[in-house]
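Protocol step 6 of 9: fold each sequence in the batch and record its structure tokens directly after the sequence line. For illustration, a two-sequence batch is reproduced in full.

Sequence one:
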Amino acid sequence: MNKLRVKFTKHGPIKFVGHLDVMRYFQKAIRRAEIDIKYSEGFSPHQLLSFAQPLSVGVTSDGEYLDMTVNSMVSVTDVMDRLNAVMNEGIKIIAVEELDETSVKAMTDVYAARYIAKFRETSKPDFDWISEFKKYLSKDTLPATKKTKSGFKEIDMKPMIFDYKFDTEKQEVMLLLSMSSATTLKPALLFEGFFKSLDREFSVSMLSLHRIDIYKLVEKDNEKYIEPFIVTDTSERFYLNG
């Protein structure tokens, strides 16, 4: 029995497919690929499959993850090739990694996510939003009202922003935001707070969002940093203060 972590991309029209449908899509794809996946026991067995973090509808990504348990396999490369052979356009498996038995589920390990945010061509602000956004992010606190399962909650978004970087030529910003079980900050809420501070109207449909990757927290040798779920030679590591 092997525990595997699969990294995949989501591009094109399939970005409009919701999380539950993506789950069903992978369940069928795994059967078509003849992956020897393990099923749960009981009267209604299901594939032992779990996803790291749902991706909002309309958002593209280069770093989505799912964990699955297989009874047997030839190699991780064979699993990747089999899956890619049955994938529809827009989803591509880019890495498969074997996990040790003590590894926790991907959804439990999520700590942060990195995005690229910019405005759609038809929704570009009529002001220098990058200059104003820089001023906004430099504030000591960034209050916002977040909708939760139990109602609405007042939060400070500032501690949930781990890193950001602007590209003035491309008119976009890279945002590394908290996505742990305790504190999750979505780009849309941050931009909503930004526009509210300027007394301007905002709609999430104005944004074009792309998720670069999902990150886990690592505490090792007196260091605290975050890195992608599957680390490659080109992966970036971000060190945290405290």
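Sequence two, same batch, same settings:
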Amino acid sequence: MVAQLLVIILLSLTWCSKSLQAVNRTDINGTLVASMATHLSGNPVDLDIWTEKMSRELEEEQQKQLAWNVPWLKVLQKERVGLVKLQNQLKPNNSLKLRLWLSFYFHLRRSRSLNNILLANFALELKELRRSQPEKWSYYLQNMLQALPRPLRILTQSRWLCLQHKKEMFYVTSGYHLELGANGDCSLWRVEEVKQDYLLLLVNSCNEERYFFINILEDYQGSYQLLRPTSYMNNTFCVSKGVAYFREISQVSEGDMGCRWQLNDCSYLPSRLLGVK
């Protein structure tokens, strides 16, 4: 009799546990997803507060379930939220927003809605995550990194770049000199974000007074212009028949390959070069 009673109690507890799990799943797929959709189109501060609260209250798997079940297409159509605006609201400053940010990226990728601005924003945020929160790196973030176009992927993951002329294959070093290969520490350029107009600053490892800017929105066939503005003109760095020179940017067309440079990942070089750490 006692044994039968124990069996009944255990079965009851199992049934209650399953029922509770079902309620939780229903709640996430229903109430919480609906609440999320409302917050996504509302005040960014309220979204921050709500996602921070949910980050504390929901377990990791529940956060994943919530993030991957957001009906992005319906949210965008019903709430009429701009893609870039929504992307900015989803800056991953807590664990739930990180998962929502990832979910939004993969939705845009599946729907082929990623444009240059959205891709650049994702790449810059991904670079910041790698730098400031390496403990949050995951399979999904790595997958996202690998899916970026090659130039953005290199800019995101590389600490040191080598700058190779797209047409004549020379590398630029400190002093704006040209070399046939990137074999010295003066061929290395450190990547720094300017946080303005999608510009990145490239600083030479041998001489910090030698630098370029690149605009990551103006990628052309996997290449960029190396910009060196002065007080009186905007210059871009060009090569013609082995001779390097600066040229006013207004005189250069987008497809002028004499002023186009490819970014190569040279992060492996400092480990074997003296003086660069």
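Proceed to step 7 once all outputs are recorded. Observation for sequence two: The longest strand covers residues 160-165.
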